[in-house]
Write a structure and sequence with these properties.
With 263 residues, this protein is of the alpha+beta class. The chain folds into 2 domains: 90 residues; 125 residues, Cupredoxins -  blue copper proteins (Immunoglobulin-like, Sandwich), CATH 2.60.40.420. 38% of the residues lie in helices and 22% in strands. The strands form 2 sheets. A 5-stranded mixed sheet has the order 3-2-1-5-8, covered by helices on one side. α2 packs antiparallel against α3. It starts with 6 loop residues before the first helix and ends in a 15-residue tail after the last helix. The structure holds copper (II) ion.
Length: 263
């Protein structure tokens, strides 16, 4: 037998390595500027995930390098390795530890998403239409007015975007808002965001949707409520017929599961 493993020492080295890696990785601003109430929550979640991943990575590295060093065959040793039947305690540990880590990560992510998507009463609703390779937007009022390639929203107010894909799957992403949501033909998906910084941003399609995918962008302007009202009042184009039809068919949430309600 090789004797007992120096578990305490290995754990200390693992923790030290975790601290070093986290100290390098966490201060980096991975997501860039934030401009919604969701941004700090998502960024914090990412940092927690970085620390967890650093721990798992460190643990694997410490055990790998310890095994490489400790159990290396002596020069000239051509014999077979010792037959090992297994180690119940080790197997319980390597099942339990990842389970706890994954459950924690899942639960915490759920809580953050739940916080971010918590609807408020005086929210604003806007419609998003995506098609190869352009974005357009409808603003509810007495009638739907329409803008192409440029979205305006008021600052510090929750907006619920009802999203409609006109052909294939697209994905709605404003990096500074952090929230990303797929647009799926036949389904109305909802993205909830509260922009909290005035400015001009870019809406990016993040679902490979065809040749023009890389150019599928739109300008996003976050402005004061009065300027937003001015913009909407100034819009002259009404929502075109095909888009209106899609709005009329809109299901508030996802449609019932297949087999539960016809088609
Ligand atoms: Cu695309």
């Amino acid at each position: 037998m090789y004797g007992r493993l120096p578990i305490v020492k290995m754990l200390l080295v693992t923790i030290a390595l975790t601290v070093v890696i986290s100290a390098v990785m966490v201060p980096i601003n991975w997501n860039g500027q934030g401009a919604s109430t969701a941004a700090p929550k998502i960024d914090h979640l990412l940092n927690v995930m970085i620390v967890l991943s650093s721990f798992v990575f460190s643990l694997v590295m410490v055990m790998l390098f310890y095994a490489l060093w400790k159990f290396k065959a002596k020069p000239g040793d051509e014999s077979d390795g010792e037959p090992i039947h297994g180690n119940t305690r080790l197997e319980i540990a390597w099942t339990l530890i990842p389970t706890v880590i994954v459950l924690f990560a899942g639960g915490y992510s759920w809580k953050v998403l739940d916080d971010i998507e918590d609807p408020v009463k005086d929210h604003l609703t806007g419609s998003v239409f995506s098609q190869q390779y352009a974005w357009s937007f409808a603003y509810p009022g007495k009638d739907y007015v329409w803008s192409e390639g440029e979205l305006h929203v008021p600052v510090n107010r929750q907006i619920q975007f009802k999203m409609h894909a006109m052909d294939v799957i697209h994905s709605f992403w404003v990096p500074e808002w952090r929230i990303k949501k797929d647009n799926v033909p036949g389904i109305t998906t909802t993205a909830i965001v509260t922009p909290d910084k005035v400015g001009t941003y870019q809406l990016v399609c993040t679902e490979l949707c065809g040749f023009g995918h890389a150019t599928m962008r739109a300008k996003v302007v976050v402005e004061s409520p009065s300027k937003f009202k001015e913009w909407v009042d100034g819009l002259e184009q009404k929502l075109p017929e095909p888009y209106m039809d899609v709005l009329k068919e809109e299901s508030v949430t996802n449609p019932p599961a297949l087999g539960a309600g016809g088609a």
